[in-house]
Amino acid sequence: MTYGIDTDFLVAIEIVDHPFHKQADALLQTLLAEDHNFALTPQTLAEFIHIVTDARRMPAPLAMTDAITRSELWWHSKEVIRIFPDGHGVTDFFAWLRQHQLGRKRLLDTLLAATFRNAKVTKIITNNGRDYKVLGVFEIINYK
Fold it and tell me: What secondary structure does DSSP assign to 27-90, as a single string?
């Protein structure tokens, strides 16, 4: 099975003093032991770098070089399937924005969801399930 990775999960895994690090790591270890894969998008990695280097969000922000290195390790991991937005995903993105009357704070998550859907990824690991539940097409895997 392939699990889509939301940015909050990636942050919780990589930041050891994150409040949900232990839970996220336990889920990751369980899924790896069961031989599952993870879907990852470039936009998730960009958002990850943005968050973990931001002193307003992180008590001990990572240096840009460290954030890039950690992102590259994920991107090149054998358990990761790299997926990209395509024309169909962007069409779904626009349709979902209209259909569900989603605002500007939902843009990145909606594009991520459309990218996952078009890659046939049906499970998303996130603690922000409400961002995806409205779309009605995903199983949400919480880790807190």
Answer: HHHHHHHTT-EEEE-HHHHHHHHHHHT-TTT-SSPPPHHHHHHHHHHHHT-TTEEE----HHHH
- pLDDT per position as a tens digit, 90-104: 999 999 999 999 999
For a pLDDT cut of 90, what percent of the chain falls above it?
98
Dihedrals phi, psi of 11, to nearest 5 degrees? -65, -45
Global pTM value = 0.94
Output the domain CATH number for residue 91: 3.40.50.1010
Are 93 and 111 spatial neighbours (Cβ–Cβ below 8 Å)? yes
Q: Tell me the residue range of the domain where 115 lies.
A: 2-141
| Backbone angles phi and psi of 9, in degrees to 5 | -70, -45
